[in-house]
Amino acid sequence: MWQLVKLEWRKHKMSRYFLSFLLCVAGIYGFVVFAAISSKHDINSVIPSYKDFFVLVTLLTNITFIILGGVILSRVVISEFRSKTINVLFTYPIRRKKLMLSKLLLVFTMTTGAIFLGTWIMQGLTYFLQPAIGLFEGTFSKQELFATLPKTITNAIMMAAIALIPLFFGMRKKSTSATITSAVLFGFLINSTISNGGATTSLSDVIVIPMIFSLIGAAIAYLSIRNIDRKDVV
Amino acid sequence: MTYIIQTHQLTKRFSKDLITDHVSMNIKEGEIYGFLGPNGAGKTTIMKMLLNLVKPSSGDIFIQGEPINPSSYRYLKEIGSLIEYPIFYEDLTAFENLQIHCTYIGQEDDSHIVSVLDIVGLRNIERKKVKEFSLGMRQRLAIARAIVTKPKILILDEPINGLDPIGIKEVRELLVLLKRQYHMTILVSSHIISEIESIADTIGVIDNGKLIEEISMSSLRQRHQPTIKMVVSNALEAKRLLEKFVGTHAKIINETTVHVTKTNEKTAALTKRLVLQGVDVDEVVTFHETLEEYFVNRITGGKEHVAIS
Q1: What is the pLDDT of residues B269-309, one digit of tens each?
Q2: Which of A162, A199, B75, B223 is the most buried (most CB within 10 A)?
Q3: Are residues B62 and B211 in the same domain?
Q4: Same domain for B237 and B189?
Q5: Does B77 sit within 8 Å of A93, measured CB to CB?
Q6: What is the CATH number of the domain that holds B243?
Q7: CB-based contact B147:B102 (threshold 8 Å)
Q8: Chain B closest CA to A8's CA: distance in Å?
Q9: A214: containing domain
Q10: How many Cα atoms are found within 13 Å in the side-chain-facing hemisphere of B226?
Q11: Are A52 and A184 contacting, i.e. CB atoms less than 8 angstroms apart?
Q12: Does the pTM of the predicted model rise above 0.90?
């Protein structure tokens, strides 16, 4: 399986997405820092504490990388059906299910990795920058930095599963644009749920919605693999 | 000789359309099987069913004696294929495409990729991206991909599409070489009969999803002896004489023309006999019905001649 994932990586030149990843992180962080600094002295500060700061960071990271996940999905899965390279792929002596699984695994791992690393890099940066610039009121300790770790990981995994939902829309007409459009829609939809929760709603109340959607994402991935052996590739 | 590919009553329907209709093919090990038929006859669908890309609605496929079911995949290791348009990962070079192909098949050794590219006439382009290739070059690269792992079976769907006349000749020679040197069994389809009649050992003719003929080239050539056209003073008398003395079959075309078939007699002997019996002979022409004419007749049921390419 590892070998198949590596082949997918090589075929689609996935290393090109490192640059996209870095640009996204720089863009998000730049925006949040700008928002924090520019509203620091207002009475209604956009970002009064580190919690609000990270709600915003997580929110923007989720939306951005669900969309990037959609782009990767359309490249690794949908475009193979669209350009018919799948006809070649399915003439190899490898079980179709395994081939599809390697593709989805690659997309899922990359999205999870991007969301986790992206959030983590930005938190790390904040840890170093906060004493110097003072992005928000109060301090941001090392303990607090590491305390966010489990939440960051679960969030990354759930969002990456949600990023598989566009597979359903993309595979219907083998359309890359439908894939990316639905990724944009779902990215915004899911994350508006979180941000609307705000500080007053408890975490478990909020988390149930993305959890349901991430299960839907996982189910779509499962269904797309389950019947692949019986499908005609025309 | 054993059969390496066999289909039994192979049928495929797409919704209501019958694409292939109870096709039973028999391909012998080590032969070149020419698969002929007009566009849309069902050739590609049959080839896709052999590769398990398309699943049969009914019927069986046996490859190297093993029955193929919808989830079979191991047998594909022994098959190199080119189906429809040559498709590649456009952003990768010719070399990378073949390298990835070898890895998927399970052959890590890629030392012979350059020599295979050389065989198909793609020299010094292995570092060029496929998106810069012309159709002819893609076709050559697709053939290279099909043969690079030296499979036992080659399934080539219209491999000469987009090639220039020299390219077509090279491909024909390559197929014969692969058969002789590596004992590959080659199933090659075409809608242009003349392109494969010279290299095929067996011909399968398909029309409207039905396999209407499967015949070895040697028996086909035997069956199709030449026709002798004779312009004579009295066709009726000539027919009578020829059938009586020579035992041939003569067909009256008009008052002065007869066509003589199924004879082992030399034209000189036939002419001499007629002249001695008082029938003047003005013209004698021997002509062969080409395979193309034969198949066109076969496909159109002899109703009318329609160009099938």
Answers
A1: 888 888 888 888 888 888 776 777 777 777 776 444 333 33
A2: A162
A3: yes
A4: no
A5: yes
A6: 3.30.70.1560
A7: no
A8: 10
A9: 2-229
A10: 12
A11: no
A12: no
